[in-house]
Design brief:
Largest sheet: 5 strands, antiparallel
CATH superfamily of the largest domain: YVTN repeat-like/Quinoprotein amine dehydrogenase
Strand content: 25-35%
Number of helices: 7
Distance between the termini: 101 Å
Structural class: alpha+beta
Oligomer: single chain
CATH topology of the largest domain: Methylamine Dehydrogenase, Chain H
Length: 494
């Protein structure tokens, strides 16, 4: 009778050990989810092979060990981590980029999960051989630990310690309510329909109109009286013309057009109301610019365009031609602010984790500031000064010279938005701020700080209150968007 092959003998011996079956289950999970999720695309095969690497290493390492417990612990830890990670991607994704974790999970499993599991497996083996009580402890603790590992990756928001911290946070914050300013501000409902809303001067009267848009067209309202100004129809009503990264602008010949301002992998271009592409800005054929912000920064009545791409920030004319271009490194446009009295226009670029750069509308550099990663960045007019804004648990404004202009603390919240808004005639701008807790607590804070640095309005909300202002000649109108609800927030008796 022929002698069995070495491979067959190795498999026969491995079948006596738990790690053989555990790594087999992990391998099946990897292969099935990789192939099915890719709709049986052959390109998924190399990716699946990469994801199988930890199981191959654990299987081979287990052959060299005389003690089966570390191999079993390593394979169980790898499987629990794999199940949690793949559930977070394919069952409960928390964002459009959730699948990126699959690229790095094999390294994480090999470098951390498997060694930790092997160490715990060795301890479990000692406890198992020690006493009946040790066996009972292993039987009780191991399933709980593995289940919590799966939960930690699949649904981190449901992990027991996270739930306890969230409950304590909500108790400290309290229910949605107006904490300060209920009698000093009035909230006027504008629309409950599912529409996009923003403010822009589309009639050429030097004041912004309130614009409500759906796929059929736009309605322009007076931001102070909320009376209708005009209706604009889109020739292309299929939904291809308008989306979350679109805005309306007024061209020099008084025609209206749709600017696609970019976001993610969206294209940055200008289209007519019939959907026809007037021009597209794409300096790198392999990627789109990060953003395209239309603005009349020099206040000559003609809209310019400011674009950020991989290696530059540029100004474009109404025809899409480059007026100037300044080299930057992976910069985004943090803010664009028009000329205002003694303040020149600002074009603020942000190189993540490196610096803020401020140009004029003519491309002249006004200054720069080093910025650490993890902060929100912005720029706004507040209390008669123009400031670069850095936000975390507080909102801090700095001049280009580095001087601190203001510091507003947010308590339990982290800054996500700031808008300078002139709420009363002959008064410098106030600052409206939105702060957020973590995404699962579902609490936001809306603050309005007056030019004297006093909090005049403080609201706790359970839906994100996005802000924008309609600029007027003497006062601005502040609008709050929460879900489908649009309202105007203004001082009583203004």
């Amino acid at each position: 009778m022929a002698r069995p092959s070495i491979v067959f003998e190795a498999v026969r011996k491995a079948r006596r050990e738990p790690s053989f079956y555990i790594t087999g289950i992990g391998s099946i999970v990897v292969v099935v989810t990789s192939i099915v999720a890719s709709a049986f695309n052959p390109l998924a095969i190399p990716f699946a092979l990469w994801s199988l690497l930890p199981y191959a290493v654990i299987f081979l390492a287990g052959r060299w060990m005389t003690n089966p417990w570390p191999a079993a612990g390593a394979s169980l830890a790898a499987l629990a981590t794999e199940l949690g990670v793949r559930a977070s991607v394919f069952v409960w994704p928390r964002g459009s980029t959730a699948a990126i974790v699959l690229v790095f999970s094999p390294v994480y499993i090999l470098a951390l999960a498997a060694p930790l599991g092997a160490a715990l497996g060795w301890v479990a083996g000692k406890a198992w051989r020690w006493h009946l009580a040790g066996r009972a402890l292993v039987v009780l603790v191991a399933p709980v630990a593995l289940g919590l590992t799966v939960l930690a990756f699949a649904r981190p928001e449901l992990f027991p310690t996270t739930v306890a911290r969230r409950r304590a946070l909500l108790e400290r914050i309290g229910p949605p309510r107006v904490v300060v300013g209920a009698g000093a501000f009035e909230s006027t409902p504008v629309s409950d329909a599912p529409k996009w809303s923003f403010a822009r001067d589309l009639t050429g009267d030097a004041r912004d109109e309130l614009v409500l848009v759906d796929h059929r067209g736009a309605t322009l309202l007076d931001p102070q009286t909320l009376a209708p100004v005009t209706e604009i129809a889109f020739a292309d009503q299929s939904g291809r013309l308008w989306g979350s990264f679109a805005t309306l602008i007024r061209l020099p010949d008084e025609r209206l057009a749709v600017a696609q301002t970019g976001g993610g992998f969206s294209r940055t271009r200008l289209q007519g109301l019939d959907g026809r592409v007037l021009w597209e800005y794409r300096p790198d054929s392999d990627s789109s610019p990060d953003s395209l912000d239309p603005a009349d920064l020099d206040r000559d009545g003609v809209v310019e365009f400011y674009a950020a791409s991989l290696d530059a920030i540029a100004r474009l004319d109404p025809g899409g031609g480059a007026v100037w271009k300044r080299p930057t490194k992976l910069a985004d446009l943090a803010a664009v602010l028009p000329r205002d009295g003694e303040h020149p226009a600002w074009v603020v670029g942000y190189e993540y984790g490196r610096r803020l750069i401020v140009f004029t509308e003519n491309g002249d550099m006004l200054g720069e500031r080093k910025v650490d990663a993890g902060l929100t960045v912005n720029a706004a007019d507040f209390a008669g000064r123009r400031s670069l804004i850095l936000g975390d648990r507080s909102v801090r404004g700095y001049g280009i010279d580095g001087r601190l202009h203001f510091d507003v603390t947010l308590g339990e919240f982290t800054a996500v938005q700031e808008v300078g808004v002139r709420l009363r005639p002959n008064e410098p701008a106030s600052l409206a701020i939105v702060g957020a807790t973590d995404r699962d607590a579902q609490r936001w804070r809306l603050l309005i700080v007056d030019p004297n640095a006093q909090v005049v309005y403080d609201e706790i909300a359970d839906v994100y209150p996005r802000l924008f202002a309609a600029r007027g000649l003497e006062t601005d109108a502040l609008f709050v968007v929460a879900g489908n609800r649009l309202r105007r927030l203004s001082p009583v008796g203004r």
